[in-house]
Amino acid sequence: MTHTAIDSDAAWAAFSVRDRNADGRFIVAVKTTGIYCKPSCAARRPRRENVAFYADPAAAQAAGFRACLRCKPDEVGRDRRAVADAIALIEAADEAIPLDALAGRVGYAPHHFHRLFKRATGVTPAAYARGLRARAAAEALDKPTSVTEAIYEAGYSAPSRFYDGGARRLGMTPSAWKRGGAGVTIRWTVAPTSLGPLLVAATDKGLCRVSFDENQAALAARFPKAEIVPGGAALAELAARVVASVESPERDQHLPIDVQGTAFQEAVWQALRAIPPGETRTYSELAVAAGNPRAVRAAGSACGANNIAVVIPCHRAQRADGSMGGYAYGVDRKIALRKREGVD
């Protein structure tokens, strides 16, 4: 008996390819062996007619199945809870928690938990903590306080700690950030593509805006205190690589970016960049990858807040029912990009 809340076709497709992203979303029970597994289990695949899908291990156990000793499906829920607990500890801490201490508090060996956390969120525990502090610094720098006060308010133990990592992450100096981007030069151009005119803008760190149907005025409105200058030869090569991403999105151009968001948004963007061309992920899967399985709506909002069209491929995101979902530049463009990657 298949659980009514599960799309059996989608579940079978994920199980067939041993999709790790499906682990925790459902349980696979094999009628001929009486065993239930997680979708990514390495065991030989049974016939489809011998498989049933359940929402969780408890449901499979209630139906008379026992856990697979090879893939240990009961540990999936424990792993996700451990990551969620670790995120809560990181967010509540006044200073960085060493990996040994963090892993110990959630009951794991440090090296194992390091891999587990990165697989679930796309970043290491240390990078997640740095992201939170850098975002807090960005918000504090917007307040009428000194730069030094803002750095301490964000949780850095000393200004030197911020300059070691936070300043690079913001993509500009803290003073420039406090002045709304004053002193930062953004080069721009509008390039023709088969999907319409494409604005390409970049700082010396990387792309800060890629968007269809926008111009210099729209860019200046987003960065009102930055110096906005024509791209010229300095931007030509990068712009050509961005256009190539539009025309041939099945190729990964490995383009540099200079964007900021909340720690969760950036984790979603990293998860999007990790999706291979020709594949898709649901907003639920992106929420899991970003470390907060319940934040499905927030994952969709993070896609909507993406400043770098195509390069951060939010066109590869979709709803759980397989429908397209929204796209800032029109669903027709989303469909076209996906078709170019071989996705119907």
Describe the structure.
The chain has helices at residues 8-16, 57-62, 74-92, 99-105, 110-121, 125-141, 147-153, 159-170, 174-178, 216-222, 232-247, 263-273, 283-289, 296-304, 331-340; strands at residues 27-30, 35-37, 51-54, 66-67, 185-191, 198-202, 207-212, 227-230, 281-282, 317-318. The strands form three sheets. A four-stranded mixed β-sheet has the order 3-1-2-4. Strands 7-6-5-8 form a four-stranded mixed β-sheet, with helices on both faces. Helices cover 45% and strands 11% of the residues. It is built from 15 helices and ten strands. The chain is of the alpha/beta class and 344 residues long. The model has no long low-confidence stretch (mean pLDDT 81). The relative contact order is 0.08. Helix 6 packs antiparallel against helix 7 (147-153) and helix 12 (263-273) crosses helix 14. It is globular.
Record keyword descriptors for this entry.
344 residues, alpha/beta, globular
Write the layout of secondary structure elements.
Elements: H1 8-16, E1 27-30, E2 35-37, E3 51-54, H2 57-62, E4 66-67, H3 74-92, H4 99-105, H5 110-121, H6 125-141, H7 147-153, H8 159-170, H9 174-178, E5 185-191, E6 198-202, E7 207-212, H10 216-222, E8 227-230, H11 232-247, H12 263-273, E9 281-282, H13 283-289, H14 296-304, E10 317-318, H15 331-340
Helix pairs in contact: 3-6, 6-7, 6-8, 12-14, 13-14
